[in-house]
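Below is how a single chain appears once it has passed through the pipeline. First comes the sequence as given, then the structure the pipeline wrote out for it. We keep one example in the README because the format questions we get most often are answered faster by looking than by reading.
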Amino acid sequence: MHALRKNRPLRRIVLASAATVSGVVLLLSLKPHAGSGLVVGASAPAPQTGTSAPASPKGVSKTVTGSTVQTRWGPVQVRATIEDGRLTDVTAVQYPTDNPRDQEINGYALPQLRREALAAQSARIDMVSGATYTSTGYRQSLQSALDQAHG
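Resulting structure:
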């Protein structure tokens, strides 16, 4: 007869407790991504509602760098160029590149976010699947740049 099927409830309790403790220890030993900047107890900044690119007089070109947004995987910052009141270029200045996975994700996410921003002419853009943190940081930094250009 199997050891756990005998009438020994104490043995089952001890084995179940040991398995539970082992599982909790393994979960607690997991470390966040390197350079995540994650602070326990800190909340993420509230997303801002996007506004369109500010209107500016004809012939005026302005390039503004948005604020650096700390994401779980690293900082994200964009630079926006506004010409004649239209958003003409968005460049990612900072983004996570700590490991090959970050590079792979941002390799496809950043061009897509740029296209979205130029098409929308605002920071109201769709998130890129698989790049949620980068997308959120990109949107917030872009909104910051547009706010600076407006004021």
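Confidence is low (pLDDT under 50) at residues 33-56.

See the next section for the split statistics.
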